[in-house]
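Deliverable D4.2, example record:
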Amino acid sequence: MFSKLNKCKYQKKFNEKKIKLDINKWIYFELVKTGTEVKKHISNFRFDEASKVIYHFVWHSYCDWYIEFLKPIFDSKDKNYLNECRNFASFIQSSILIMLHPFIPFFTEKLWLDLKLDKHLKTPLMYKEWNLPLIPNNSFKKSHKKIDWLIDLVGNIRSTKASLDLSPGLFIDISIDDLKLQNKSIIVDNLSVFKRLARVSNVYNYKIVKKGISIVSGTDSINLYFNEDINLDEQKQKILNSIKDLDRKVNISIQKLKNKSFLKNAPKTVVQKEKGSLLNYNIELKKLNTILNSIKN
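Output generated by the structure prediction step:
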């Protein structure tokens, strides 16, 4: 439905090698990684793992991020970007159907026909090869790194709002004064998309006199400013309570992973899950402590 509403149509003459937008290069890079993993799992008869990889790509990379990145582009009047995105979104959609076909063949074949891909590509879906038209080069890798960084930043802004018990739809101002030059350019190059996804009203290249906090995204620091009155003292107490709870969980997890009996007898998946939980606790603790220190200052 999204592709039809935005007039996305597969063009066989479309040259994937000539795509320019970072977001399209990013999703193609993700598609190649996904296809490689899926083929490996299928060859090992691990269809459960193959389906998990496809699920993650479709619902996380494609739906959660790629479609959201496309919306402001489809709302724009830039014909070059519009044509590229309409063609490329259709290409990605057809590639998803190809990967899903071994798992839900009747459903994917029906969509293939509804989208008239059998006419555009001159083949039923069941005969379509998995091979992609090109191997990602350095340009694709650089774009993938850029968009990954931007997604992390948007995710950190969203989670900071959640930590402060603020509405996800609340618009804020930000200062990118402390960012590295290359990361500033990522925001500037994708400004309309970034503002829409992160709910940002204004982006300043200098610090402004306004109530706000500093957050850390990766190795970068960025300042958030709020457009409505927020009781930071009250929020500070909530964050202190969350930190106390996380400290307790970290200690429990560390004790588990130090327990030789647990490491010896527990299934590997359980041990790995515990290690993953400990890592996530520490990441969350680092984020909350950064917010707390910013409020104190």
